[in-house]
């Protein structure tokens, strides 16, 4: 009997090992075939890092350009597929890669040993270095990394320069931000003493902003920390091999120095020809459009979810109703106890493993679910504020429990909580900015792009402040109008 069990276990182990090997082999072999089959390759990037990748306005239209984009175009051309560019914050790129949102990441990323544990990298396509950006008026103070001892240095979150600044500068305070444009603004407003970044990017900012100077970092770095490569999902060997062929072609023809960087420089100069905010009105208009879409949809669905949750929390009776009430209560408490940013990322990246949900829809779903939890509490409070005599009178007239709630209690409850619902609507207009972390082009995202394009830090922020005020003030007036109407009922 023991021998039979041993043979059976051995056979099962062999079968599992064989299937695992087969699945891994098929997966590795199919990565290139899958890209060709769907006819497109999706590139993830954070377009705020000139000259690697940034947005430029041409003939009134905004597009993503830069050295990395040209490399991606060459890879797509060699594969015979269409290039699709998906915008994300830098620290979300690898998450997007691992959850299948993108096929590759090209964003001036360094192939460090830590990153290689989770993703596969192509051959190096560009060997750069690090500089530290400082204000020109302070350039006499800072010569290299040692000059920043006990100072504050800014760096983009998730980058090698962020990690190395912490390791190699004594007593330094490293301030991390998701956008290079935010870092430059922090530098110019003296929130940080310097900004560590890739040498080509630092030179790009210096070339377009006379108040800045780049000093050598003199970081002690390995070659992987100063080089740029393309990141792919772990095990996508055939796709990596195909990309390496394109990289070899690019290197052989020296296209980066001869064509890609000069072209990026031209776009950067074009961006600074007209840096007035009116020139970028279309970018802000797109931001307003997406902000309103997210807000209106989230208010509608959030209200429906809130009503359902509030009613479920009133269930009483048998064990099944008690279970439903407990689940509704747990949902409300969990959503209210976790940050909306985390919820947005979970819907986009977490659920994205199972279902490929677009960024805009993910944002609407996450904000609707979040709003529903808060609206549920408003409505529950509103229902409790209605005099119990109203319910008793309705039931005595022959109305069912459901009709009493629908026609008598809920209308009065909504009237009582209207100011709270209005406040929730105003809050959602502002909270819609959170979805910028997953690449939705709402107002905050668009302002970051404008700042990257124009190298102006304060003006775009002032513009969106005014726009947000106009939106919230208008919404507030409309809600007050309806509130006055309810008072006369």
From TrEMBL:
UniProt signal peptide: none
Alphabetic keyword roster: Amino-acid transport, Cell membrane, Membrane, Transmembrane, Transmembrane helix, Transport
InterPro entries on file: AA_ABC_transptr_permease_3TM, ArtM/GltK/GlnP/TcyL/YhdX-like, MetI-like, MetI-like_sf, Solute-binding_3/MltF_N
Cellular component terms (Gene Ontology): ATP-binding cassette (ABC) transporter complex
BP-aspect Gene Ontology terms: amino acid transport
Superkingdom of origin: Bacteria
Coiled-coil region(s): none
ABC transmembrane type-1 domain sequence ranges: 288-479
Name of the protein: Glutamine ABC transporter, substrate binding and permease protein
Subcellular location: Cell membrane
Primary location group: membrane
Membrane topology: Multi-pass membrane protein
Family: Belongs to the binding-protein-dependent transport system permease family. HisMQ subfamily.
Any matching Pfam family: SBP_bac_3
One Gene Ontology molecular-function label: transmembrane transporter activity
Entry's transmembrane regions: 290-312, 346-369, 457-479
PANTHER family for this protein: GLUTAMINE TRANSPORT SYSTEM PERMEASE PROTEIN GLNP (PTHR30614:SF20), MEMBRANE COMPONENT OF AMINO ACID ABC TRANSPORTER (PTHR30614)
